């Protein structure tokens, strides 16, 4: 029975992933900062092959404590899912908030990987799944710091995948588009942006709403993709999920970064969304 360690399991993608792996022949170690605060996770933890553990990926002592407690387990699959969202202009976002995003989304994943790689290397076997985002492949207005964390995670994962291939350790990036999860409630637009950046706030709300209601996908689809990655004979380094993620990245690559910059000069919403419809072939907001 392979051992799967998953971070950020209290809700959303993390919970769906823990549940999906628990249906197979896996020992699931589902972690969260406060596992008992999630009734669903507590219920899942009653299964024989699910073990709940406290973990704060931002705290090295918490990470060390977890692995001390798990010394009887050799991790076969690591799923770095714990993350935090957030929006705001570069001008008005506090640096401390930017640090929090990077500490969670990048360094949190790095701490976990440094713990499991030595054992995987010595056994010449293992899988590392990093939950990134379409925002790690293309930029979005008022999400500069979030994009920066995901671009960083992508670069790390791509380089690491090359380093670890010789040890038969597979690495992948799960890159969802809009997903119906509580992450959207963890980092809202900041009031200081209402004066000079309100146009982007309005567009973000329209696009996210469209994604949540029509274009995005649920956590279960992403969880199934992770299980498939672990079992397939043809693993990929990138998994863009779902249609909105694929389309957003394709359109950005097709028209190029200079077009993206020029689009920021369009002040009329009707003109902006009309232009986007011409490119995508459907309404995006």
Structural features, described:
- The structure is a single chain.
- Helices cover 49% and strands 14% of the residues.
- With 285 residues, the protein is an alpha/beta fold.
- The protein has a 7-stranded parallel beta sheet with strand order 3-2-1-4-5-6-7, with helices on both faces.
- Strand 5, helix 5 and strand 6 form a beta-alpha-beta unit.
- Helix 1 (12-22) crosses helix 7 and helix 4 runs parallel beside helix 5 (144-164).
- The longest helix is centred in the middle third of the chain and has 29 residues, at 95-123.
- The model has no long low-confidence stretch (mean pLDDT 95).
Which terms summarize this structure?
Rossmann fold, 10 helices, 285 residues, globular, seven-stranded parallel beta sheet, 7 strands
Secondary structure tally, helices: 10
CATH topology type = Rossmann fold
CATH architecture descriptor text = 3-Layer(aba) Sandwich
- Assign the CATH superfamily: NAD(P)-binding Rossmann-like Domain
- Poorly predicted tracts of residues: none
- Strand order within the widest beta sheet: 3-2-1-4-5-6-7
Given the C-alpha coordinates, what overall shape results?
globular
- Mean pLDDT score, rounded? 95
Order of helices and strands: EHEHEHEHEHEHHEHHH
**Helicity level:** 40-55%
How far the N terminus sits from the C terminus, by CA atoms, comes to: 45 Å
Strand content: 5-15%
Helices and strands: which structural class?
alpha/beta
Largest sheet: 7 strands, parallel
Report the radius of gyration as a whole number of Å.
19 Å
CATH first level: Alpha Beta
Q: In total, how many beta strands?
A: 7
Count of distinct structural domains: 1
